Amino acid sequence: MTHTSGGAESVEATKEATKKAGAERAKRHRHVNPAFQKKFVPPMLKRAKTRAPMVVNDDVDDDARDGGENEPKSDLAKLLQMFDGDVDAAIDMVDRNGGEAKKPIALNVKAKPVVHVPFATRPAPQSAPEATTSAPAPRVSALGAAAAPAQMSTDVCVTFPSYNYAGSEFPRAQTFATVREYQAYFVSAICENLMLRLRDVSSTMHKLRTDGAQSAQKPDLLAKILWHRYKLRYFTQCEISSRKWTDKVDNTEKTCVRLMVKDFKSIKGPKPYAKGDFWIVSTEPWFEVKPLQEIGDRHRAPWLGVVECKWHGMDNEGRMEVQLLGPRPPRLRDNATIHVYAMHTSLNAFSETDELENILSLSAGRPSPLIDSILGKPPPKELEEEAELYLKDADIGVAPLQRSFKLNDDQARAVSGALASATSASHLPVRLIHGPFGSGKTHTIAAFVTKAAELLKSSNGRIMIAAHTNVAVDRVLQSLLEAGFTDFIRVGSVRKIDPVILPYSLHVKTGKGPSQAKELEAMLKETTSVRKRAILQKEIETLSSGKVGMRKALLKKCSVVGVTCYSSSHEDLKNMEFSVVVLDECSQMTEPSSLLPVVQSRCKTLVAVGDPLQLSPVVADVPESNRSKANVTRNPLKRTLFSRLSDAGHSKVTLRTQYRLHPALSAVPNKCFYDGVLIDGIGASDRTSLIRLTTGGVLSPIVWWDTSGFDTKEGQSKLNVEEATRVSGVVRCLLDNDVPAGRIGVIAFYAAQASCVSNKLAHAPHGVAREMTNVNDDEDFESFLPSDVQVSTVDAFQGQEKDVIIITLCGAPLSTFTNAERLNVALTRAKRHLIVVGAAAVAQKSNVSAWVETLKRARSTPNGYIPLSYETNAVLQKWSPAVKESVEHDDVLLSPSSEIAPSPRFLNDRETLLELGFDQKRYWDFYCAVMRGVNYDHKQSRATVTESPLRPFIQRVFPRVFDANGDIEWSKAKVKRALSIDVIGLLRRFIEYEHGSEWGTLDKLIDAFEDREEFERDPTGFGWMCVQEAEGAVAVGDCGTGPTTRSDDADEDSWNT
């Protein structure tokens, strides 16, 4: 009886469970089946037609958002809004949370969530609405939009931002509890940075939309406007398709998404599309997609997204495989195709893709040996007694390293500590080397690598040298070559490797483009160096013989491998492990970039070198919110791995001795940026002046040339024409006074100002490049062309140095863009002379200590401050080449009054010219003919030179002027240089020696042999230029190299006040 009763209860329970399950299935069926979705709307989701549409405004404060009248009333409605109308996802979320309204719900349903948020918090929408109904006023940032807290996840999601998108707020994380937390933080940070970089495109589209012509302009017209105004390629005939297929290798089902651009053939010229390019794709031609205002058919809703190209460009039909970086288009089901509009942006995320894959690989397979350091855990403590053991070691101690590698004390201590970690003599896994400007970072790295390779050879330990740029990697490898170390292989693109390193390189080719042989041939045509031409020629022969393949075998055996951070993940380096990684320029890389070689190599020791007081990584710049606290940031990628490891307490050695700047120049950055800890390793005698002043003395190391003029905005940039004109005059004067173009640099803080200066130098009258003698024969000649002077922004000058640096102040002192790091770089590039051109009053008003200190030192130095009232030519005419300390050549020509006897070579040439009856008139005629022929292509003047009685003399003294047939090759630059520099220079010196130095000036020659008014009307323009120079209207030497102007005007003996 009991058994029967129990059976009845069991049957009843089964029936009840079956009935409940059936009801549940019916409920789900209605929401899952598309047919039901179109016909059935749950009553709780129905809304009155008279009610105002719901507003989605991410700018509303949390308090205002909680009490908003336009919020959906039901929990499911809120979830539907959260998931952009995705009913399936919303129902699933309700089921998983048991219908509890306020229970924390994870926003990410595709992956295990890392951060949970309250139910009422929503993720940022795809694109902020252009216009909404009235809503409570949000707290806004400098960009006009409020920044929401970042929603961190390991899912890669990049959406097209609104034009006023201000970014999300991230915590300034120092440590991470788990690998997944670290991954979510930096995956979200990379995606956020990419979105910020897309704001320019969004602003462009918003500007066009708000011009009032949206309704009148068709997509075809929009495409023309975007290209001609903004150089953005916009396509109207595009399709995006999704196909499912089964991979036969691993028998898994995969989905392939392709974008087809049908009208790409209408574009003429090159099509620079590459792997990693970002495309903006939308079902709407104006890329204006507002969030869903009410519940409806989500499959018909407009869509806007970002895709990344996975191929190295399009195929012949305009197809390419892409990856969706945001929500999938609702209409794009499996094996479906939809029509879209697409725009190609200049943003390429090829490197970011590598960074994301690298970060996500941290949780796969064996953990990295340095995972604790990466997560920010404090390093183990090292007692002073333990450090003394290796610092005083007979092999890796400070004293033997100083003797072997000529290191100073700081350099030797840094190398000793790094060697101790590499050889397990110390249990510290990370060593940081803080190397300020000119402190010998490269020499220190080379000393460490040389010694470490020797010590690790017995244990088969290997070293990877990585840096953010190819130049930095090659600089270290060249230092190794100079030390006689050749057991290394450089891995990289042949075009980006320095020719000196090519014989030790393994060429890799990525994407479409010319073959390696063609690349080498192109480089051979471009280079002017005899040494580099020989190296390139030999490399071409090696490539054609197939011997380059032997280097692949050496890659597995060599002690040292040099790569950029992104090349460290190359296929040829897969599964290779390295004991030590040396990161140069670590303070210029983002942390995900620094992590690439560290994770890929599975290294046990990291030696990071950098200067956090100089330029930080180049990332999207977004102002921090005024209400942001010190522990919150809008772009966490600005903080580098070097800084985070330093803050965590890892061992750091500062190289305090600088060997670059004149002591007077180093005093400013030492005081303003380095707290006075730096020491000068050179004296004033090692950095003598390049310019002598005719009024007495020399050009000061610091010169401030006060200038008026107005800064003019050009888009987001600025320019100052008056400053640019004065900088151009200073550059030409330096060139005329024997300072080569390669030793001069111009730094501007704005790209528009750099472009303005470059244009003035490109169109400036000039001589031609001069021959030079170089014992290493590294270059055939030093250029004295104004256009060959490097003019760049501060960022492009990082890591470089010049004897003379000219800074154009335009917009810098009062700009937030000119931060301390950028200013530090600008002030630490000059070895001998720093010339600042700009308004002194503006710099003084800025209250920026570095500007104020520079101006103060210029004012207190003789000849260091040039007042605003001084005329440009009056100042520059007092500049002349500095007297050489020693006579290096035996062909120096001197006047009869000189105490030093003329060289035998000159005396022999003098006899020949006297026999020819060469006098002042013949010199003037020959000079005019040469200059017209060289600079103005004047045929009659060229014939005069060819038929001159001086021809046999020139052919004997300067045979390179003539070809094998005895003709002058006027088209060749070397011939022009020889005629205008060497030949004219010799003849001028002869005239000055025989008749006095005044016969070498334009004033004397024009007055003696020309009518000024008639000469000024010379149809070639040469006469006008000579007269202008003689009258002091332009800078010295503007009519070409030759006779120099000497003014008799009696200005003040000094411009110092």
UniProtKB/TrEMBL annotation:
Biased composition regions of type Basic and acidic residues, renumbered to the chain: 12-25
Occurrences of domain DNA2/NAM7 helicase helicase (ranges): 406-532, 534-619
Domain DNA2/NAM7 helicase-like C-terminal residue range list: 637-840
UniProt protein name: AAA+ ATPase domain-containing protein
GO MF terms held by the record: helicase activity
SUPFAM superfamilies named in the record: P-loop containing nucleoside triphosphate hydrolases
CDD domains: SF1_C_Upf1
Segments of this protein annotated with the region Disordered: 1-73, 1037-1057
PANTHER family: DNA2/NAM7 HELICASE FAMILY (PTHR10887), RNA HELICASE NONSENSE MRNA REDUCING FACTOR (PTHR10887:SF518)
Originating species: Ostreococcus sp. 'lucimarinus'
One Pfam family in the UniProt entry: AAA_12
InterPro entries: DNA2/NAM7-like, DNA2/NAM7-like_C, DNA2/NAM7_AAA_11, P-loop_NTPase, SF1_C_Upf1
